[in-house]
Design brief:
Blueprint (H helix, E strand, L loop, with lengths): L4 E7 L4 E7 L5 E7 L15 E2 L1 H19 L6 E8 L5 E3 L9 E2 L7 H11 L1 H8 L7 H11 L1 H4 L4 E3 L1 H10 L3 E2 L1 H6 L3 E2 L4 E2 L1 H7 L8 E2 L3 E6 L2 H7 L6 E7 H8 L8 E5 L3 E7 L11 E4 L10 E7 L3 H10 L7 H9 L9 E5 L13 E5 L8 H25 L6 E5 L7 H11 L2 E5 L3 H8 L6 H4 L5 E5 L6 H18 L1
Parallel strand pairs: 1-5, 5-14, 9-12, 15-21, 21-22
Antiparallel strand pairs: 1-2, 2-3, 4-7, 6-8, 10-11, 13-14, 15-16, 16-18, 17-18, 19-20, 22-23
Helix pairs in contact: 2-4, 10-15, 11-13, 12-13, 13-14
């Protein structure tokens, strides 16, 4: 029997990952990512963050070449392609489909004033009832910045895309997008189930800038002859799934239905829960988007809590604070010797751009409570991880106010969830059980592209690796440390 494989790409801000999944067993047979160290982010000014889309393409090619070599799988055996990508980025191309400028990526905060002005001018009720969010710092506001600050370049734009749309375009030569993608960019009107004309008109955007809309699960396009020759794939291979990294992470953890929760803690940290009814936070501190299985007939909305300064803070601590040469596992061991609450040392972890959960304030990262006579590096290492967890819990309280019940958190065993300290603190403060699974974004994207009857069939082989229960005996210690951190945060807001 001929083997058939599913290919998944995950375009992150740190790297591009590719995975091959056996379509019958559901098992990942090969995975690779490039670059091996974090990809560069261009920051010409404070609060800016850009990446060259060509870099994503080159890293996608390198990752694919590696997994095909490692597995021995040929292009003829790959039957479908799925794509996951970093959300909210802006890619602009001209009529020849050439990129006009580096992508303004998710953590870039230059567009905040454009989103805030639209929110004020159009009105809170109008924006929230139609977009389910403030225009904030999302893709539409980023495009407004380009229109205002780079008018000659703006005039050359043929289409605007999200990072996943760009990769699909390079694979196929076809430009299109999804409702889920448009909703994350603030281009989708949920009340009227169409492109948000009122926001397009407000910013002065021509409707032709929006690509054709295709279903999330569908043959969206096929691999072109040119791309097939460049990548060793079969011409005509369908690209049949695409989603932002957080909806896709939820998919990879088989989170499809109301009340189900997924979390990640990579460069940024996310808690993502599914709602079955249209809802939003009145202050737009958490965001509501179309989930991968959302339709006009059956609402499936993803409530997204995002903390920008998560893994990137832990990486900064390793480079600049921890003893030279140690890895993350050794950092965890170092921090484990420090008591809950880090003996009063607190880290406010918001040093990676404006934070939505803080109503788009850019307050930076701060370390407080240090006593020169008793505190050392280990206290700061622990306080950093606790600060990340506490920021999660701060946002989760907002989600609970919206009616979301958070008793169980699904996550991949990766990034910060590899840290026992991080996991135990999150379970201890939130009171939620954490279940860790063997999956990642590129594997989820591959399965999303697959030829399955439903999500239960696609994720029947999903392997649960570990369960972390809250430590009831130490709940008061965790809660006390969190309340101390929260008091400090509120003083600084």
């Amino acid at each position: 029997m001929k083997k058939e494989y599913l290919l998944g790409f995950d375009v992150g801000s740190s790297s591009v990952k590719a995975s091959l999944v056996d379509s019958v067993s559901g098992k990942c047979v090969a995975t690779a990512f490039y670059p091996e160290h974090e990809a560069p982010i261009i920051a010409y000014k404070l609060g800016w963050a850009e990446q060259d889309p060509q870099m994503w393409w080159e890293n996608a090619k390198l990752s694919l070449k590696k997994i095909m070599a490692d597995s021995g799988v040929t292009g003829e055996e790959i039957v479908a392609i799925g794509i996951s990508y970093q959300m909210h980025g802006l890619v602009c191309v001209d009529k020849e489909l050439n990129v006009l400028r580096p992508s303004i990526i998710w953590c870039d905060s230059r567009a905040v004033p454009y989103g805030e002005k639209a929110f004020a001018d159009l009105g809170q009720d109008k924006c929230l009832s139609h977009l389910l969010n403030s225009p904030g710092n999302f893709t539409a506001a980023k495009l407004a910045w380009v229109k205002d600050c780079e008018p000659e370049l703006y005039d050359k734009i043929f289409k605007v895309m999200l990072p996943g749309d760009y990769l699909a375009m390079r694979l196929s030569g076809t430009v299109n997008t999804t409702v889920s993608g448009l909703s994350e960019g603030m281009f989708w009107d949920f009340k009227n189930n169409k492109v948000a004309d009122f926001l397009m008109d407000y910013y002065g955007f021509d409707s032709s800038l929006i690509p054709d809309v295709v279903p999330t699960f569908s043959v969206q396009s096929v691999v072109s002859e040119e791309a097939a020759n460049e990548l060793g794939l079969k011409p005509g291979t369908p690209i049949s799934y695409r989603a932002g990294d957080q909806p896709n992470n939820a998919l990879s953890l088989n989170v499809f239905n109301p009340g189900e929760i997924a979390s990640t803690a990579g460069t940024s940290g996310v808690v993502y829960g599914v709602l079955g009814d249209v809802n939003y936070d009145n202050k737009s501190r958490v965001n509501t988007f179309a989930h991968v299985n959302h339709t006009a007939e059956q609402a499936r909305l993803g409530v997204l809590l995002c903390i920008n300064g998560t893994g990137i803070l832990n990486a900064w601590i390793r480079r600049n604070v921890a003893p030279e040469g140690i890895g993350y596992a050794e950092m965890n061991d170092l921090a484990a010797d420090i008591p809950i609450g880090s003996d009063g040392v607190c880290v406010i972890p918001f040093g990676n751009g404006a934070e939505r959960v803080l109503e788009n304030k850019e307050m930076g990262c701060s370390i407080s409570g240090i006593n020169f006579n008793k505190h050392g590096k280990a206290h700061i290492v622990r306080a950093a991880q606790e600060g990340i967890v506490f920021s999660f819990c701060y946002g989760m309280e907002i989600m609970q106010q919206m009616g979301m019940n958070i008793n169980k958190i699904h996550a991949g065993k990766a990034n910060m969830f590899l840290s026992p300290l991080f996991r135990d603190t999150l379970a201890g403060v939130s009171g939620a059980t954490i279940e860790l699974y063997d999956t990642d974004g590129s594997v989820g994207a591959a399965k999303g592209a697959g030829i399955y009857n439903d999500n239960n069939e696609a994720f029947a082989t999903l392997e649960k690796l570990q369960v972390i229960e809250p430590d009831v005996k130490r709940a008061e210690e965790y809660r006390s440390a969190y309340m101390h951190w929260k008091e400090l945060l509120n003083k600084n807001l």
